[in-house]
Write a structure and sequence with these properties.
Length: 243
């Protein structure tokens, strides 16, 4: 099986000029033609940023609302009580609760959800399981827009279900962001990437010096990386392609 996957990757790689910086639209077309998985592969964007992750004021953590979503169903857990809990249930959250959910996470290692949202009054209690949620990227945080006032719960739940994605740089200054599925149209993928590029540019730390976005690579799950012209990638705009 591994040998077969190796052959498929080698064949896909033949379609890509590793020395070339592709225009974004050409790279998106290549993503679709080089994806060989039997499942609907995820499209990813990898960015090398001109930041020093050792300095807190140069790290990036924010969100982007992808126009066409991620193609993935998102399981939402909300820490809330009283009227806020009812509002979260009405908005379609998968799990809603307070001490009961915190207890399940603490005692049963319950992590059958993709994102956790909390109202501010719950954070004192949620902090008790922070050591478990934090390493999994599930701890509610104001920077990721997951600590919200009760009246904002319905909108926030709709946004995260509809394609709001959190992203942050890793320890080496790289960003890795999923922006959809190979089954999406080329226009939908380009729109999502354009929205991401806008969000990254908007999140540029004031302390950053020199070139901010140094390299851009598009790829799909198990597919070859396709190097993209960083200037052209930053010039992308949502809705500029015709379906």
């Amino acid at each position: 099986m591994a040998r077969d996957h190796g052959k498929k990757y080698t064949e896909a790689l033949k379609k890509v000029d590793r020395a070339q910086l592709y225009a974004p639209q050409d790279a998106v077309a290549l993503i679709k033609s080089t994806s060989f998985t039997k499942f609907d592969a995820t499209v990813e964007v990898h960015l090398r940023l001109g930041i020093d992750p050792r300095h807190a004021d140069q790290n990036i953590r924010t969100t982007v609302a992808l126009p066409h979503g991620t193609g993935k169903s998102v399981r939402v857990l909300v820490f809330a009580q009283g009227e806020a809990a009812q509002a979260a249930k009405d908005a379609g959250a998968d799990f809603v609760g307070a001490d009961d959910l915190i207890g399940r996470i603490d005692k049963e290692n319950f992590f059958d959800f993709d994102i956790a949202i909390a109202t501010p009054d719950m954070m004192g209690k949620v902090g008790r399981v922070g050591r478990k949620l934090g390493p999994r990227g599930l701890m509610p945080n104001p920077k990721s827009g997951t600590i919200v006032q009760p009246e904002d719960l319905p909108r926030t739940i709709r946004e995260v279900r509809g394609g709001r994605v959190e992203f942050r740089n890793d320890r080496t200054g790289l960003l890795h962001v999923a922006v959809g599925k190979v089954s999406f149209s080329e226009g939908q993928i380009q729109d999502n990437i354009a929205a991401l590029m806008d969000a990254v540019k908007a999140a540029k730390p004031a302390a950053t010096k020199g070139v901010f976005i140094k390299s851009v690579t598009f790829t799909s799950t198990m597919g070859p990386g396709i190097r993209v012209d960083p200037v052209a990638a930053q010039a992308m705009s949502v809705g500029s392609t015709a379906e």
